[in-house]
Specification:
The complex is a heterotrimer of chains A (215), B (304) and C (827).
Chain A (H helix, E strand, L loop, with lengths): L33 E8 L2 E8 L4 H8 L18 E4 L2 E4 L12 E3 L13 H8 L9 H14 L5 H7 L11 H16 L26
Parallel strand pairs in A: 1-5
Antiparallel strand pairs in A: 1-2, 3-4, 3-5
Helix pairs in contact in A: 2-5
Chain B lengths: L6 E3 L4 H11 L3 E4 L5 H6 L7 E4 L4 H4 L2 E3 L3 E5 L4 H5 L22 H7 L5 H4 L4 H7 L5 H8 L3 E6 L2 E6 H4 E3 L2 E2 L6 E8 L5 E9 L6 E11 L5 E9 L6 E4 L1 H4 L6 H9 L12 H26 L4
Parallel strand pairs in B: 1-3, 2-3
Antiparallel strand pairs in B: 4-5, 5-10, 6-7, 6-10, 8-9, 11-12, 12-13, 13-14
Chain C lengths: L34 H4 L15 E7 L5 E7 L1 H4 L4 E6 L33 E2 L5 E7 L2 H10 L1 E6 L6 H6 L12 E9 L2 H7 L2 E12 L8 E7 L4 E6 L4 H11 L7 E4 L16 H13 L3 E4 L2 H7 L3 E12 L5 E13 L7 H9 L8 E10 L13 H19 L3 H8 L8 E6 L5 E4 L4 H12 L4 H10 L4 E12 L5 E7 L5 E5 L8 H13 L6 E5 L16 H28 L6 E4 L2 E4 L7 E3 H7 L9 H6 L21 E6 L5 E13 L6 E11 L6 H20 L30 E5 L22 H13 L5 E2 L3 H12 L7 H4 L6
Parallel strand pairs in C: 1-12, 8-29, 10-11, 14-15, 20-21, 27-28
Antiparallel strand pairs in C: 1-5, 2-4, 2-6, 3-5, 7-15, 8-13, 9-10, 9-12, 13-14, 16-17, 18-26, 19-20, 19-25, 22-23, 23-24, 26-27
Helix pairs in contact in C: 9-10, 10-11, 10-19, 14-15, 18-19
Classes of the chains: A alpha+beta (215), B alpha+beta (304), C alpha+beta (827).
Amino acid sequence: MTPEPDTRLVGATAVTPGDSGTADRGTVPAAGDLFDITLRVNRVPYTVRVPARRLLSDCLRHDLKLTGTHVGCEHGVCGACTVLLDGEPVRSCLLLAVTVDGQSVTTMEGCRGPDGGLGPVQRAFMECHGLQCGFCTPGFVTTVTAFLAENPDPTEEQAREAIGGNLCRCTGYQNIVKSVLRAAELIRAADGGAGHLREPGSTNGNGPVTVDGEA
Amino acid sequence: MKPPSFGYHRPQTVAEALSVLARYGPDAKVLAGGQSLIPLLNMRLAAPKVLVDINRLGAELDRLDEDEQAVRVGALVRHARLARRTPSTSTTGTSMADAAEASIPPLLAEATRYVAHPTIRNRGTTVGSLVHADPAAELPAVLLLCGGSVELASVHGTRTVPAEQFFVGPLQSALAPGELAVAATFPRPPARSGSAFREVSRRAGDYALVGVALQVALDGDGQVASARAAYLSVGPTPVLVDLTDAVHGSTVDWEDAGRLAQSQVEPDDDIHASAAYRRHLVGVLTRRAGEVALARAREASGDA
Amino acid sequence: MTVAPVRPAESDAPAVAEPTVAPGPFGAPILRKEDRRLAAGEGRYLDDLGHEALAAAFLRSPHAHARIVDIDIDAALDVEGVVAIYTYEDLDGRVAEPLPLLIPHPALHAPRTAYPLAKDVVRHVGEPVAMVVATDRYTAEDAVSLIRVEWEPLPAVIGIDAAVAAEHAVHPDVPDNVAAHLVQEVGDAQAAIAAAPRSLTLDLHVERSASTPLEGKGVYARWDADDRSLRVYTSTQTSTSVRFALAAKLSLPVDRVEVVTPDVGGGFGVKIVHPWPEEVLVPWAAIRLRREVKWVEDRREHFISSAHERAQKHTVRVGFDDEGRILGLDVRFWHDNGAYTPYGIIVPIITSTQLLGPYKVGAYRVEFHSLYTNTVMVTPYRGAGRVHACFVMERVMDAVADHCGLDRAQVRLTNMIRPEEMPYDQGLIFQDGRPLIYDTGDFPRSLRAALDLVDWEGFAAVRAQAQAEGRRVGIGLATYVEGTGVGPYEGAYVRVETTGDVVVATGLTTQGQGHATVFAQIAAQELGVPVDRVTVTTGDTRRFKYGVGTFASRAAVMSGNAVALAARKVRAKALRIAAAALAADESELTIVDGVVSVRGFPDGPSIPLATVAVLANPLRYAFDEEAKRATQFAVPATDGPPVPEGEEPGLEATAWYSPVRSTFANGVHAAVVETDPETAEIRVLRYCVVHDCGTVINPMIVEGQVHGGVAQGVGGALYERIVYDESGQLVNASFMDFLMPYASEVPTVEIDHVTSPSPLNPLGVKGVGEAGVIPGHAVLAAAIEDAEGIRIDRMPISPAELFDLRRRLAAGEDIGLRRRSRGEGPS
């Protein structure tokens, strides 16, 4: 062990700016290299410089400061970090930010109403007491938003199944199931259904995406 | 729980991917859906030097190619695409809600719906699940049962490895360093056949304590010509058992088939289930899946 | 703003009598105020703060028990971005001392607490050994992975049996591994059992589990070197006590330390423990480095280094008569407290005292040993010792009923304390050191309500129908009494702003219970203002310095009453000022919708509370329009001083609530389960709850608490357990293998309310936070036992374990219910 503790202070090092890792297709970037990526988050385009290992959850929360996405387990089981990638629910803790370069992401913030207030799913959670501590709620809201876009009039059983991959430690799910059904009502009642909540994104999220003027 | 550093490459063509894989050999790991790999990275249980992200190869790998004999599933086909058909709980065949994907073998679609939860299935890939070779996973058992294969490409060419040679051990497949699994082929079931997938898990969506994929084929007289099953979570790899002897001809005895299967599996204890319980479930699930598969086979034979 | 002219009172009596309890927000299912933020994704949890702070990560012991021979940090120091690495040798001052023993007890004769970083020896997997501070968490983890420690493994003591056997010791100076030994006795239980017509012995076992909030712990510290002050944000259940603890540990004046609890993503008990090693080390490092430092616990860390609970083995002897009346109960149990005891022996004390539930058992003797093992320490998890207590008592009730061939509900009724016996003294000393005296409760009524709700009488037909279909179902009952609202005190501050808005602050913290809403309802009701005008702050020592914390279903009782008392003081003051302004008698005044008027004359002379607030603070300086109206020159001079004697400026008050003893909530759960005859899978078909938490402030929130508690009860009974292997590795430290239930596993809860208000506090409330979870083990064990006809003496239970029980029964083991031999068992 080092005898003098203060010798351990090696000082903060600024992150070294790097080139876009995809600039030279023939070269394999070294560990620690940085990548300039473009994400369209809640319809707003962002360019952000990240190391390859940056999880999308951390990128959203700490690089873009969109803290509506929560991180509960970082191994894909709890679902708190669920966001919509080109409209489909995915675990943002199981995605590298660099992988989704060029794609569209909808987070909890993007599920708000057009006026910045509660969106219909969020409102339903409030009305039905579908949240307590609120930590898991973003994952439910994004999941339910996508579900209702495809199933605008679910049964209670379908509503329960739809939230089956998200953990909540507070509510016992009963009021979350209610919230799903209530959200469906609110969306149906609103003009235009859930369409306005969905990020249009690309029509085929699996296809090649142009990055930084390439391809 | 943050991934360690790694070199990152995102090739734009399969050829480019193979060249990178060739260069790095065992130091490289392929990232497709990442639903098994990223948790391992986050827990720092895996530390590849280079990650080869194939998610930009959709034009070549996000493909379902089908003909009368088989369905070929490209390496970027997500589970959700195969599971999208309306779930069927009836014993009288699966419904065909989504015509576009209607020609996916019913067993593959049924089993895929047992893979984790829908959100994971939106990202995870069928081929990735096969390559991960978890003995508790659903799709390896399906591939094994239907006699499918995996195509492994490298700069030296492509080889096709049949399922029985592909699953080598727990989390071990025949994929060699430098190779990319580009597709898996699931042969279609024979005429006059039916299949079923059943599993018992602790929570819905968990890995199975025991699962079975089972297929029954009838002869021209409507008698059982063959019955085979593949079991998961009962050994280091999925276990294929020929049950025909127990259910052959007119005296179909699924209990007997269950006993036959029990004699051929070697499950282990873990914190969720004892070996004895798993062995017991092999018997129960054989009968349950067998009855359903037989009913479906009869329906397929116009004999319901 | 003008003050309406005064109209003289027309009669002594108000024209319209005001009801005793005015209709208002109190008792209404109003939507939660906090949800406008939380449901919009605008919550601020610990890791939402301090994006620019340095990140801490910890090297944690991979061994259950080992000596640290050497720590080599050289390679780790070379990692770019590493700012500092600390081991025990670097700690100084009181930070180098063991962490505090928070709750001493005379029976805890060998308390041991950990050092913030391990000194020489580690005693459980996950114990912090070195702290890395780096530019970000990724880098910090890189450095952690490069620290090389030379270990000398020592034998590990894992599980109660190994601790009792004491072949090895967790602490060398505690060779028998016994941290505490306590006996309480009321009457001569052993003699009563010996003399009883019938007796039974039961061995019962509850395994380890954990609170597992979805947000782990986290600490973020900011040191202002110029001001020499520290602000610490921490995801805790007690900011006030963390503040005092940090001031003591860091040798800072208390007034230089602020502790703020941001939004907290669940606590369930684990966050009441403090100061955690990280809670001391992060601020300590921030001061040392003069940089902001943050640590956010990840899921694996939470499993292996935060606290666990449950884990007890009981041996029970019970004596009873032919009617199933219990004459004596003798309980001995062994409690696994893990490697350290910073939270004292609260959990086993609660088990030993709450075990009796709603029953009179004649004579009672309870003896426990609290034992060290090389595992994570054990501190309260929602239910806190009562889950085990309820399981034991209710197993006894079912065993007695089976033994006598009596209806299980009838046996319970036979043994219940009657409502006319309240208050009822159980003759024991409770966890707060006070006598265990039940304040209220009509236990037979609660039981009958539950029997009605679940249709106990009609179940025979349900069972017969199921049997005809080849299905197997069972029904179970469990009752509990829960000490809620333990002291010593909480306080609250209420202020009416010159806008008419009301500000409320209390010391305890919030983890999702809806305090911002229920405390607002209380203040609004007392003050006569709309709930929308009330803003509540909890867990922020800048707003309220004194308090105890949120645990033991105490927030509504303790802070709720403190808010009510403070609001009453404010109301009284408002009426005094308004009476002067309106030239009315204050006894004639009332406040409706934030306006003071003469009772019965809503259209008569009136003055808004906002104006009263202005008048309450006579000013010299007119900094805004409201202030102008309150300056010395705007208010007519009187003979007296501007602030009358005995008054203070401002329409505000602080009040304290400190009860003599706890309130006691009670309830009955009934569940119907189906067990698969082949796979032994267990499904909860119905789950019925009757509960009595006294006066209900917000029924929507109360039901939400019950729902969530039941989910944890079901999870604890059927899915969750913490599993250590014999070497002390926690083998299921992930959500893959620690099976918190999803929506697919949790039943719909049916609820009925019984209300017996507590006479002990002004609001009559008793607390509900833990109610849902307490009977989970007991009621599901009972229902499974009923379905199977096999005694269930260990929880949780998995399908594999039920399968094993069936095999043992089939092999002839004597584990079947007696009713089987009477031909009443399941077919």
